[in-house]
Amino acid sequence: MTLTGCKEVNSSQPNGGVSISSTTATPPNDEQDEDAKIREIAWDSLSARQQESVQGNWKTAEVERLQGNSIWYGIAMDEQSTQIPDQVILVTFNTTQDQLLGPLVIYIDAESEERIGVGVRE
Predict the structure, then answer these.
(1) 111/9: higher pLDDT
(2) Is the C-alpha dihedral spanning 48, 43, 61, 88 positive or negative?
């Protein structure tokens, strides 16, 4: 993240002091906004027990976009009759059980932005 600011000389301050008039962060780009939305969809799809096991800030979970045909194992579909869509988004949450089971991975259909399944944990 890039921070920018500007200094303004203000003669009303004692000794012509320098004050910082504003500091703004670079606005998020569309991909960051989309990732935040996808993280929230994934987070909201978790049970309370699963949410309690997430370590760190869920808002920084890893988001990865894949071609559906590159996923050939490791997904437990929410609806068994559902086909894997062409574009899939994976959201990976680290949990307190990662060493035992691996991270919690949520699969989301990129087009409908709905959860389609979870990654199989050991």
Answers:
(1) 111
(2) positive
